[in-house]
Design brief:
This protein is α/β, with parallel strands linked by helices. The chain has a single domain, classed as Rossmann fold, CATH 3.40.50.150. The protein has five helices and eight strands, in the order βαβαββαβααβββ. Strands 3-2-1-4-5-7-6-8 form an eight-stranded mixed β-sheet, sandwiched between helices. Helix 1 links the parallel strand 1 and strand 2. Helix 3 (about 85-95) packs across helix 5 (about 130-140). The two termini are about 15 Å apart.
């Protein structure tokens, strides 16, 4: 969804091992990779050494991003939102730092009932519906442009691509977005 775009300054929220920063590095002007865990940042630092694009690794909380308002061109939250007890606040905070016309890509699980993930992997949420994401995007000033479902594993994975409203946007209501289903 974002591979063919010029990403400008990309913020990778919940970078973990740094895989998304690595994947998007060829199309970004600058990358800031943020994670709460010092251990994950150590792993990411090792993985990202030698990248032609310098990647800034930053310890921080996705509920209180250490960036100025409207300072980021693109944001990716890959398999991190399900750890949030207040995912609406995470999306609102992403919307705060995103420039007008900038994009937010969320990759996470579709709704599921695997309660074991709460205990075994500290998941606060068991996936998200399109309606939840659409509502949270709208509250954060984002338009949901596209949704995509990747199936084939034990749990379906969803991709939601939103865009920060800019001065050119007339509609006060989030769009319906286009929806696709793909087998993994």
């Amino acid at each position: 969804m974002m591979h063919n775009r010029r990403l400008g300054h990309l913020l990778d929220i919940g970078t973990g091992t740094g895989r998304m920063a690595e994947i998007f590095a060829p199309t970004a002007r600058r990358i800031t990779a943020l994670d709460r865990s010092p251990e994950m940042l150590r792993i990411a630092r090792t993985k990202l050494e030698g990248q032609p694009l310098p990647i800034d690794l930053l310890q921080g909380d996705f509920l209180n991003l250490p960036m100025a308002d409207a300072s980021i061109d693109s944001i990716v939250i890959h398999q991190a939102l399900h750890f949030a007890h207040e995912p609406d606040r995470v999306i609102a905070e992403a919307g705060r730092v995103l420039r007008g016309g900038g994009h937010l890509l969320i990759v996470d699980f579709a709704p599921h009932e695997d309660e074991a993930l709460r205990t075994l992997a500290a998941h606060a949420r068991l996936g998200f519906s399109d309606a939840q994401i659409r509502g949270w995007f709208a509250s954060a000033g984002l338009l949901l442009e596209t949704t995509q479902t990747l199936e084939g594993g034990e749990l379906a994975v969803k991709l939601w691509l939103g865009r920060r409203r800019s001065d050119e946007d007339q509609s006060p209501v989030a769009g319906d977005g286009q929806s696709k289903r793909l087998a993994a």
